[in-house]
Amino acid sequence: MSSSAEKALNKIYYLRFSENIRKMKKIEMVDLRSQYERLRADIDSAVAGVISSTAFIRGPEVRLFEEELQRYLGIRNVISCGNGTDALQIAMMALGLRPGDEVITTDFTFIATVEVIELLGLKTVLVEPDNGTFNISIEAIRKAITPKTRAIVPVHLFGQCADMEPILELARENNLFIIEDVAQATGAVYRFSDGTEKKAGTMGTIGCTSFFPSKNLGCYGDGGALFTDNDELAALIRSITNHGMKVRYYHDTIGVNSRLDTIQAAILRVKLRHLDEFNKSRMMAAGHYDHELSGLPGITTPVRSSFSTHIFHQYTLRIDGGERNSLRECLENEGIPSMIYYPVPLHIQKAYLHLGYGPDEFPVTNRLSGEVLSLPMHTELDEEQLSYITGCIRSKFN
Known about the structure:
Structural class: alpha/beta
CATH topology of the largest domain: Aspartate Aminotransferase, domain 2
Helix content: 40-55%
Order of helices and strands: HHHEHEHEHEHEEEEEHEEHHEEHHEH
Mean pLDDT: 95
Strand order of the largest sheet: 1-9-8-5-4-2-3
Largest sheet: 7 strands, mixed
């Protein structure tokens, strides 16, 4: 087919869906309301049960949720807490990291990953992401390790695992802790070279996650959890989350107040039963995006690594040629939301200039921050919405 004929077909394709936009359900970046409507009966019953019991803090639903998530992940211990940021901080406290200890993490992530490092007086060491998967670069980690390095925090970004096998090898060689940030990838599966499979968050010393409402497994407020196979470490983590207590009013360690409330645990119990279904829906939506957008000039669709499933917390394109903002404006004009994760790299955030990195020190991160654009991604996207979104994009790039 000639280029002009293809452009004409794409124009017809786009106009056909444009005519139906008023009839179509509003496109949301994350559609929590529609998901709730689907689960309404079970959610309402779970919440009503907690209210009736009045066991709002550390009620039985919290323990049941932790046990069910343990079975789902295939790990010995899940300790819930107040949010994902707390989970990262508690992990570093439990591992005994001290001011001046170096912690390596990626420059391309949400601020919470480095926020807690700085709050604890540790030394943040930022490294580049991989140019393809957006996850932390193994070679960059290797170059950043010094005698003061104590931990690595790989972030399983956008729903795909970082390459954990070489990271685990580096940790063993250098006697380092690994704290997995799994907030965007709960349910993703990593495949080792020997064929062994493990879920994200279960491979390092401690896994940390968030149950923020937009996550693949999200509650209706704040929530988080830590995962570990080490029973002694789990007991310490549980104590830290509850003011450093193992026995009531006996404080053996300095702790914090970070607990998952019972209503949120009850909601998460319902949603955990649907997590694989939720992730499959996201993967199907991603497949539609791939089919319609792959090969368009100036657009790079998400890279799937050979060692991990991708459960698409975000579906993130790269837009070449300085056209990212133009595309975003075009989508907005057509009623299609989009987001930039993340527009400002950590190394040039005002609050973190004291780390001493130069503005051009991380060229991969800088390039990604100028090119990435995330499309609507959630469990309730339907064929009509997906076709309309991709039709709008194709009309611009063909």
